[in-house]
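Figure-free illustration: sequence to structure, shown twice.
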Amino acid sequence: SSAEEESEAIKRELEMKILSETVSAAQLLLVENSSEKPDFFENDVVDLCQFTTLGGVYHLDILELPPQCKPVKGWMIVEILKEGLQKYTYPPETTEDFETENAFPPIEVTLEVHENVIFFEDPMVVRWDAEGKHWRTDGISNVSYKPNKRLVTFSLDTFGPVTLIQDAHINMPYQSWELRPLDVNKVLLTVTTVFTEIQIQIKENLCMLSSVKLKDKKHISILEGTWMTPIPFIIALKEAGLNIFPTRHSHFYVIINNKVPLVEVKAYRQMALLSSAFAFGWSKWNLLCNSTKVVFKVREHLTEECTENPNWALLMFSGDRAQRLKIKEESEAFSEALKEETEFHSTLYHMVRDFSSKEAMEKVRSSSCQFVNSVCHMLLSTRLLSYS
């Protein structure tokens, strides 16, 4: 009956509203900054919000020599220990039997760094404190690193688990970025930092590391060519040392161009929606506008060919108002003046429609929801507008 159909329609509408509000709340969480910095009371304790462990954990132990074979009347006798091999505590808990103070000097250790991990600076070595349940920097000295051989050498006062750490924000803030369509439902995200250029392809609900350049040299990563869904992909990149994903505490360790979270979220959502037919890029003017607005470059991009001198438009967006700026990227001073013969719009979609082709808008309309969601998730995770 019509009453049942109407009831069902109201129910669906309510479900969609709840879903939309839940998604929006989750997206906001990805760009919100924590108001409190984590407290670490001891100087030698590693702040895992500032540093990240890379290459796994190395368990270093000295083992006691097991009972040796003894020849007795033609027999070889050996004591069998039920517990198996025993760890030797170094230095021993009691050292009364040893005369000199340096009877147990630090032991030199050399480790090979995992081949699938990238260190942009010499790695730091830290040890696990089983009692305090944290990583510490004390008890380790004479650290040296040979990047060509990927060998790190250090002296260790006592044995136990050790790992290598790197500044989690070494690639932040970014120097520039670009989001460029490759096809319908397929884009290339390029993030350029002080040390590297990372290219990520996104299609449907999948992401792939396309290339990594280190100081103009291409670096071969085991992740290249492997398609993954966004969250496992982000985890894999972090574990490889390619961290371009700020956390809610990152702003305490990096000088950022902080933007209002809701403005940032709305910008990423609308950029993702348009990404099948429009390229977006970093603009220096984003640094000069206030925190309630973002500025970026945009242009229609329907072919894979790279134009030498692309005709970028500069857009400014405040979450509920989009405008095309009169200034260009090369201008000498920032101005919010509106470009001649253009007008304000409430969304980026309506803004770009003013200067785009029918073919471009058709591509936008044919974008899949999964693809738009994946692009949006990657933009929210990299926070390009606040961290560049």
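We now fold a second protein in the same way, so the two outputs can be compared directly.
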Amino acid sequence: MAQVSINNDLGEWGLSTDSGERARLLQSPCVDTAPKSEGEASLESLGRGTTSTIGAIFIVVNACLGAGLLNFPAAFSTAGGVAAGITLQMGMLVFIISGLVILAYCSQASNERTYQEVVWAVCGKLTGVLCEVTIAIYTFGTCIAFLIIIGDQQDKIIAVMAKEPEGAGSSSWYTDRKFTISLTAFLFILPLSIPREIGFQKYASFLSVVGTWYVTAIIIIKYIWPDKEMTPGDILTRPASWVAVFNAMPTICFGFQCHVSSVPVFNSMRQPKVKTWGGVVTAAMVIALAVYMGTGICGFLTFGAAVDPDVLLSYPSEDMAVAVARAFIILSVLTSYPILHFCGRAVIEGLWLRYQGMPVEEDVGRERRRRVLQTLVWFLLTLLLALFIPDIGKVISVIGGLAACFIFVFPGIRLVQPITTQRVPGSGGSTRIQKSGDPSFRHKSATGSPRSAPTCPAMSSACTQLISL
């Protein structure tokens, strides 16, 4: 059988000879601060994608589902039982879907094609930079969570292979958690994170999606036909307080956060209409809700208040069906880390180029060196933090708060701040459309004199407080 290798071409690791290609790969939202003209906007409209409605539904579902579902049984326990968990999810789902629709409307109205660009166009420079920083911190924290998940699952698998008793520490250095996480990260994650493109991961990503569904199926089956040695703890029926209910919100936000990737998905549709998009996200969120609710309810009822933050850790190490689920989760995380890192690296690259004040095309000569340096620093920092923060629940509580920014805060800012346009003179006697988010845009005051565009300082302060959680 022929072997298929990934990234075996040295050219994939080096610098492309096509400066235009490199510029597009380096392009981060809002590097070009000049507003788009009507002609440019019409050209962009001709470049619409070919994603069907059904395809868009599954893309959004895949963006939602991931390793975050492992924490949902613990979220039900934190919320105070099944009734409180379901009520909280259903209530938040209204705002989650509304936020996705608001993003699509703002993207269509501003002719922007990514989450960051929409924030820049509608809310201005300050909120746009804050959004990009939030995305970078969120992706960084999620990468830490992924490494912790790898360690959790490897501990259980190694315990079976080494025939160590349940709960016993590693007896050898090569089975130590810190060593296994580091070895896996250096062998698999780092090589997958350095290349410029991540398109080659689409096949492995398909397997990770299958693995996510398999994990949900196993948790439901184990609840219906439980093993004799599994005894549930106390089954809570009501929350201790309303504060306890809201403590489960970060986990739910982390699980349902697909808003950053939703704008490109909307613009890739054959018919990018807000009404059609509303049906797409509603169907996708219902599917994701079924998966998360099935995992959360069955996992919580299986173990009760004794459920671990990572539900798979609550199952015996010897269970082979669960061991396969752990292997699928590891595969999912191995393919998800480079994707999240790619997004964070693109944001950092855009911030750096904008700070330097140089166009992308003039800076591609140092792209490879900068990309490798950014990847190594990102990788080493996330690895070190994952080695010394073994509790996945603490990490999710932080990045879940950041996910709330993408779900509630930034769409809310865009909802209260309408997109205003004005015609300004262009070259050759022509005119072009200028949006309220452009730096040179001037709003008219009541007296008719121009004034600076508002920057929503109150909302920016709220975002800063959420980041500091």
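Summary for the second example: Strands lie at 421-425, 431-435, 442-444, 450-452.
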